[in-house]
Design a protein that fits this description.
2 domains; Fic-like fold
Length: 388
């Protein structure tokens, strides 16, 4: 199957593959730079600042775990998985083994896929990730393993017709229908996404192009969206963009209507202009970065507060009991508690079992006066800005 460049496109921005049943299928890097460039430059600047934030290895691992859990929940929910984020976390923490229903097996598979393919590279050298058909097929194989599907074999290209989307999300898209079209398209896609022209677009744009076009070809009977989003994360991750790539699926889910509409608008463009998808990608990128930044700031604040409480104990601004209470509250920074909770809640009861209600109330008032606690609508909570 021959691939030819559309000479009518500026600088050959559109490559077309002639197929048997689907006509010419375009691989496009045609988009309005002005609509995307500013957001990408802003992202790069903020990411550099994010990398400068101090975070200990233990907290980095905790952050990785939290973000991956949220991403797995998001990428599965986009495809209709009904499990809550809390249940997703429970499944990921459970030991392997046993028969699972489809929804749970999807989560287990995604956990394996993220662990196998989306962990930060040991080698700090940043280099482009060269995509291969074998890698894409392996992604899909892991993602869809042990899940019964009438028209899908894990890691194998389909030879049946599928339809994507619905009237509520910009209409239905019918991707290439047969294996004889999908196979050359995938070969062309891999060559194209690894080409010098696409590499020169930069890793951010290249990752989005890989995501969009793999979704466009839709080569598998099942797991196409999950495979495309994970491929995007792998490309970004391999070039040093830690944390942000794995949380992006959560934001695709939060903006699911925009996600589908951006894909359909790009797919329906008669000029093969994919600005709609790339502009949406840039917004998701920024939202994900700001989320990670906020979480790292939160961890830094926890460390600072812990040291501040220790200092307050040393200078006797708080008693040992009050200090211990602050330490118990610290991991749940925004959670409110009441005076009664000090005697009834198992977290606090050991501290206040032998203490009168009057003394407990005095403890709380003292910590409010020292701005360590804040009075809320129903009780008290830690003041996260006790240091300003």
């Amino acid at each position: 199957m021959d691939i030819f460049l559309d000479k009518t496109a500026d600088n050959a921005l559109v490559a077309k593959v002639l197929t048997f049943k689907s006509g010419k299928v375009a691989l496009s890097r045609k988009y309005r730079r002005s609509a995307v460039g500013e957001d990408l430059v802003r992202f790069e600047s903020l990411f550099i600042a994010l990398c400068a934030l101090p975070i200990l290895p233990g907290l980095a691992a905790q952050l990785d775990t939290d973000l991956i859990r949220r991403s797995i929940f998001g990428t599965a929910a986009i495809e209709g998985n009904p499990l809550s984020e809390e249940r997703v976390g429970e499944i990921l923490a459970e030991p392997p083994g046993g028969l699972r229903e489809r929804a749970e097996q999807e989560i287990i598979n995604l956990g394996k896929a993220y662990e196998q393919f989306a962990t930060p590279p040991a080698d700090k050298t940043k280099q482009p990730f060269l995509v291969s058909e074998q890698f894409i097929r392996e992604l899909n194989r892991v993602i869809t393993a042990d899940i019964a599907h009438e028209n899908h074999s894990p890691g194998q290209y389909r030879n049946t017709k599928v339809a994507v989307g619905n009237a509520d999300h910009g209409g239905t898209y019918v991707p290439p229908k047969i294996l004889a079209d999908i196979q050359p398209l995938m070969t062309a896609f891999v060559d194209w996404v690894n080409s010098e022209e696409v590499l020169r677009e930069g890793v951010l744009v290249r990752a989005a192009l890989a995501h969009y076009h793999l979704g466009l070809i839709h080569p598998f009977g099942d797991g196409n969206g999950r495979t495309a989003r994970l491929l995007e994360a792998v490309i970004l991750n391999q070039e040093g963009y830690r944390y942000v790539p794995v949380i992006m699926s959560n934001y695709y889910y939060k903006s699911i209507d925009e996600y589908f509409f951006a894909f359909r608008e790009a797919e329906k463009s008669v000029e093969y202009d994919i600005t709609a998808f790339l502009a949406f990608f840039a917004r998701i990128l920024m939202s994900s970065l700001l989320d990670v930044q906020e979480r790292i700031h939160f961890y830094i604040r926890l460390f600072a507060l812990r040291d501040f409480y220790r200092h307050s104990l040393e200078v006797r601004d708080v008693t040992r009991r009050q200090y211990d209470l602050l330490q118990i509250l610290l991991p749940n920074l925004g959670k409110e508690f009441t005076l009664k909770d000090l005697h009834l809640d198992p977290q606090f009861a050991p501290l206040y079992r032998q203490v009168s209600v009057k003394t407990a109330r005095r403890d709380l008032e003292r910590m409010v006066n020292r701005t360590l606690l804040i009075r809320g609508e129903k009780g008290y909570r830690l003041n996260p800005f006790a240091l300003g």
